Amino acid sequence: MFFQLSSFSGRHRSPTTWSSKSCVSAGFRYHGGNMIATDTDASELLLRHYVFEALIAAKDRSPLWDQVQFWEDSFLDSVAAERDAVGMDQGPAEMIHRYDSLTPSEKKRLEEDEDKLLADMLSNAIAFMIMMKLPKPEVKRKVRRLLGRSHIGLVYSQEVNDLLDQINNLHGNDIDLKPSGSKRMRKHSFVVHAGTDTKGDVLFMEVCDDCVIIRSGSGAVCDRCWYERLINMTYCPKTKVLCLSRRLTSTTRLDKYYTKKCRELYFCIKESMEKAATRQKNGISGEPELGGEFPIQDVKSGQGGLLQVTMEGVGLKFSQSKVCKC
């Protein structure tokens, strides 16, 4: 069977009706700050089994899930792990020094990145608490305390408050989890040697959105080269050496790295720097939301329908037939 997108399908539409994820759903899903009505297909739900359903349905349900201190500790641990994964906790003195040297717009972007990390982790914590049937008054009380202690800005704290306002209508895994920033980081890794030949220490160079991270063989961060401090970058295809000149507090520093993929590394860093400059100029931050609905038409029968893209997969929905998912 072949389908074609309708002539007006170029416009992305927000989803109107999605399918329920589990049998404990109350007929809604919370995704991207919106309450979305769901269709309940009993035959489809019978094919899905989630671990949390067994944990909350068991007669000997663990009292651990009712301990609010457990959820607070889990939130703090997840924030610490995420901050370490994205590099916010590595070299704090260097990070503070860099923050002081940034422009007001760059400082605001970093502050928003921090707020987003905390808000996403807190939203996921709410999702897990609702999933494990923690009493909802306790959820609201604990989350609001954590929200105050986290000092999240108004924009992202409002997102958390909007979710809290809707939890009375949400059950099970109705709240879609937010992907962590560390999972969405675009990193390219290269194996390099310190110096001008293979006699130097083996290092791993990661090209990130706003800097180049140099790690040791054990994975520990050895150095970080911020793009705004990079003065000059050259490479020699004959010797396969990449040279990075950067500005320090009162001096300049030249580092040389040997790698067989010298040319690829050079252009990878160059492309990342150009994207960082464009992002800073246009004030672009964050990631686009994925998913939605697109009008389609069955080429054979001429019947119109919707192509639904969700986190669970792609569905084809027609008025005179059942939803076909893949």
TrEMBL record:
Has keyword Mitochondrion? no
- Got a GO cellular component term for this one? cytosol
Question: Which Pfam families does this UniProt record tie to the protein?
Answer: Death_MADD (PF23629), PH_MADD (PF25328)
Q: What is its main location?
A: membrane
Domain (MAP kinase-activating death): give its ranges: 87-162, 288-323
Q: Which domain of life is it from?
A: Eukaryota
Q: Does the keyword ATP-binding apply?
A: no
| Keywords, ordered alphabetically | Guanine-nucleotide releasing factor, Membrane
What Gene Ontology terms for biological process does this UniProt record contain? regulation of apoptotic process; regulation of Rab protein signal transduction
Q: Which GO terms describe its molecular function?
A: guanyl-nucleotide exchange factor activity
Q: Where in the cell is it found?
A: Membrane
The protein's matches in PANTHER family, at most eight in alphabetical order, are given as: MAP KINASE-ACTIVATING DEATH DOMAIN PROTEIN (PTHR13008:SF7), MAP-KINASE ACTIVATING DEATH DOMAIN PROTEIN MADD /DENN/AEX-3 C.ELEGANS (PTHR13008)
Q: What is this protein called?
A: Uncharacterized protein
